[in-house]
Structures are given as structure tokens and as C-alpha cells.
Amino acid sequence: MKYFLYLLTWLTTILAASAQTPLPSKTDNRLSGHLRSLSDAYNQNKRLDSSIVNSRLINFDKNSGRVLVNAIAEGNTEALSAELRQAGIDIVSSRAQIVTGWVPVAKLSTLESLTSCRSVRPAYRPRLRTGPVNSQGDSAQRSGVARRQFGVIGQGVKVGVLSDSYAALPQSNTGVTTGELPGIGNPNGYTTAVTNVLDYTVSGASDEGRAMLEIIHDVAPGAQLFFRTAFISNTDFAAGIQQLANLGCKVIIDDIGYFEEPFFQDGVIAQAVDNVKNNNGVTYFSAAGNSGNASYEANYQPSTYRPFSGTTNPEVAHNFGTAAAPVYFLPIRLPALGEAVISFQWDDPFFSVTGNRQADAQTDLDIYLLNAIPSSTTATVALNSIVARGYDDNLASGDPVEILSYANPSNTPRTFYIMIVKYAGPNPTRIKYVENYDSTFPAAASAIVGINASTCYGHPNAAGAIATGAAFFLETPAYGINPPLVEDFSSKGGTPIYFTPNGTRLASPVTRQKPEITAPDGANTSFFFRDSPSDTDTSPNFFGTSAAAPHAGAVAALMLQANPTLTPAAVLTALTASCLDMDDPTTPSFDTGFDFMTGHGLVRADVAVQNAIPASLPCVSLTSGNWNTAATWSCGFIPQLTNPVSIGNGHIVTISGQTARAQKVTFSGTGKLNFLSNGKLGY
Description:
This protein is of the alpha/beta class.
């Protein structure tokens, strides 16, 4: 049985409610629920809440006692930045209405008094979509064939990667001398080192970005490589995208997803992707995600059920079922020691994106995770059954998002229950949550309309991004499986866009074709992540759409060497036209053409490069040399059947042991062809 290696970032529980803890009242606080809990615990006993500061969901610096936050400006970010600096806050970056900075826990409560600040929430850590060692994905997507047939290696193309880190681990320099990466000492002559623009070297960094660069170097060894961390905050990620574009990167690849990225609107990262595509000519690849179809999306259905006792509790539950058969608790299954990190949103625009109080969250919804449910649809929920909750004041913050995190402490699988309630405001039209880690829907949830929905959201869903799904390299035609099979964790597309970036509701929602393509994963790197028993070697295997995206992005580098005039739109057209059709296994019959699990299918690099070459582009010899060497030709690639060829005066071009192809061949002066070892010329 195939072994799947999931790239998980283990989280601890952020908030747990006890039987003695009453439901929190919502006042006009600027601090989000998570930050209020952290601040209150510190102010009460001058101690830090260990369940929060030890969480990998929260960016906390234990040495300085600071937490990384996103402060949302009421007006312009310049005024808020000035107030934050005056309060001793170390600002990292800003974008749209968001200012990211490091705040001492002891000073969190002072943020409540900032007049230019509307709200503050944690700058949540994102999720990774996660030489002598060569990626088997190179053969699975036929990029080796492309290099041999067209003589392309990505020469002259700058490729940037955005991930967690590049050189945080102690063995980071060994990849150059063993040929895994370019730099001084590379045994294959690729001596231009990776440009490390900004790294992330805190505890827990995995150097996944370096693993991505190893894949790119396998596929396009002549490309010039750049790395920039995207792991600090969503605003810094957006700044990093533009920074790589300004450095001349024409291909940019990322494998990062932020939990609070908007579902139904293009947020700051998505807008940065669109900007570099439209204004810098960048072809942008993003890992589609590793959440499969672990999502719920449906129209909001109001009810009269009030789950909490007492006249002061205004919450009314969403009905997952029907009016005739209401369901207020959606079952989910967590494996032993498994984790759920759920992003929950609804169809209101984000104030942090629009900066407009007329285009922000009008409704306040909350999400709860329960370990037990009432015995009837009229009984109330016991407070000691609440194990986690997302309960920010969305009317105060203006952003329609809640983040819920919980780790199953049991050594056995357990069933938990999602409850969604409206706290205040009008009924929304559409609600959606995406589970980013381990939970699944049990058989008991199979009748619920809306489960198994799309999980590709945020910037991979941007119009300017090429979202990339994953297929295990051993389940592709190069390894005997045709048609290839998509990984079951590869994120499903189809998340609708309801709003423009400025918060205007569209006349009808736009559903983009995502993912566009699928590329190989599960192949070898020199160090990341661990060996899989599925292949016969002992090298570590890199699974996830995090591994697929660099495979596809490196193909774009080959294409751009073959034809440097290609626009991002032309690269996408050539890539999708190259794809081998695949099936969405969640539908009853074979999906011919595009589908929301595999896009247009598995990328074939040789076909993509061929598609990139302009028909009838002349190839003129620049020097005497081998026909099968790209440097021989003015066109920069090995001539094909559609290319007219001209042999220059005094040049001798040798065709040895192969059949060369050309539309026609003409000669200038004493130029000639030299045939060796049964070499031939075909038209």
C-alpha cells in the first residue's frame, strides 16, 4: 500500500473552555480573543499562557516575550505605524490596512487605547503545503526529455522561491558541493550561488525552501535561483513577492498558506500575485494546498435553536440540515493525536483589505468544537463540552474570519462536533470552513449538503497564480500508471469570489478554474523530509503540493529559455495544452478535460517547451558545432520540424548518431553539414 507522507506543522490547543469558564461577553475590544486571553493571563499573574506561547500557530519570541500581531488601521497605515512606534512596537511590514509588528505581551493591553487602530489579531504562522540525489519527478513530467530534445536548462531565467527557510539547518551548505544546488564548488559547473534575500532561522524552521530549490535545480539546472522567506506574516509575504519581482525573477514559486487569507475576496497576498503577473511579467506558481476536500460550504440556514442557556446569550445556531430535519452539530473525525486547524468565513468583505467601513463584516459569527452534544435538538450545550472556539468580535474588527485550533489528546480516534452560531448582525448568504490538517467527515456526516467542498483558497485562487496540484511520481505514465492519479490530499478548487478587492459585491460570483495543472510529488531530495518505503532507495521523499509547485515552475524556466518573449498568459496556455488528462476520483465517472481536483492534468515538459517555441522561428548557426547543442543556434534551442535552419558561412554543423529535424535547411558560402555515426536529417 502506498505510503503518504503528510507535511504537518504540529499545533497545540490555543483556547480550551472549561465547565467553570462562562462564555465570554463581546465588548468593543480591539484585541482578538486569542490576544485577550494572552494579555489577561499575563495581567492577572504576570505569567505567560503556556498553551498559547508554545503553540506553533502563534508567532511568539520567548527570548524577548513578544508576540507578532497584525494591527488593522482605522484610517491610513502611516498614522497607525506612528502610534505603534511611539508605543515601542517593532514594525515588520505593512500592506493595505494591515501593520505587522512585534508587541511585548506586557504591552498588549495598551493597544486597546490606540485611536488609529480598529483591531489587532495574531499574525498567525502559515501552513507549508508540505546532485547525486535526483528528483524522480523530473522523469515523471518528462523534463529530462525536454532538456535533451531542445537543449534547454533554464539558462538566463531567474527563479524565486518563497517558503519557510533556506539555511536554518546546520547542513545547509553541503548541497552545493554534492551538486544538489548551484554555487562555488558545484561539481557540474553551475557556480552562481542561490541568492538568499531574507531567511527565517527561528526554531522549527525546516528549510523546505531549500528542498524546493533542489527540485528546481534538478529540472532547470541553468536557472539563477533566489530565496525569500514568506513565513513572517501575510503582509511581509506580499512584500516578498514584489521584492523577488524587482530582482528580476520571471518565475516565482511558493508553498505557503495563511489561515486568515480571504476565501471570497482577493486579499493582500493574492493582490500582490496579480500585481507582479500584470506589471512585472512574472509567471507565478503556488501550491494548491494539501487539504483535499476537507471543507464545508453552504448557504447559511438560520434556526430558532439557542444552544446556550440564559437570557443574555444571543447566539442562534446554523442549521446544517433541513427545516424538517434540523442538524445543529456537524460531526468530524480526528485521528489519534490528530489536529484540526479550521478557518471559518462568510460572505462579507474584509475591512483589512478594503479599509472602508461601508465594505466590511456586517455579521458576527462564531464557531465551536464540542466533544459531546445535547441529547435532543432542544437541549442546551454543556459548557464543559466545548474544547475549542473561534469567537472574535467581527463587528469590531470588520473581518469575517474565525480561526479554531484543537489537538486530540487521545491515543485513539475520536468524533467531535462543529457548531456554528450567529452572535449579531443580519444573516449571511454563504458560509464556509476549511480544515487545514487532520480531520475528516465520518459516515454520519455523509447526508449533510455542503461537505467535501473546495479547499484551494487565498492567493493560489488568485487570477494571476497557477495553482498546482500533486500526483505521486510512481503513479504517472513514466512509472507505469496511465492515466496518472492525483494525490488524495491535493486541494480541490472551485472556491467562489464574491467581492472585488475594494469590497463591491459582484453581480454573480466568479469561480476560477483551479488548480490549473498537476505536477509530480513524492520524489527524492538530499535531506527533506524522510524516506518513503514506496520507492527502492533510502533518500528522503518530499510529498505535498509544496513539491509539485517547484516541479512545474522549473518547467516554466525551460520554456522561457526556449522563448524569452513568452508572457505569463502564454506560459499558462502552453502548459495547460501540454497536460495529460487526469480524473477527479471524487466524481462518479472520468472527467474529460478540466476538473477541480487535477486541473487540466499532468504537465509534460517536453510538450510544453515545444508549445512555447514559435512556429517557423528561424535558427541560424552562430558557430561550428553539434546540431544537438542549443549554443550552436541563434534561436537558443535545438531546431525542430517547424524551424527553418540556416548554416552560416564557414560553419560546419555535425549531426552524429541521430535524426535531426528542420522545416528546411539553407547554406551560406562554405557552410555545410557533417554527418557522423549514421546521423540523418529529416524534414
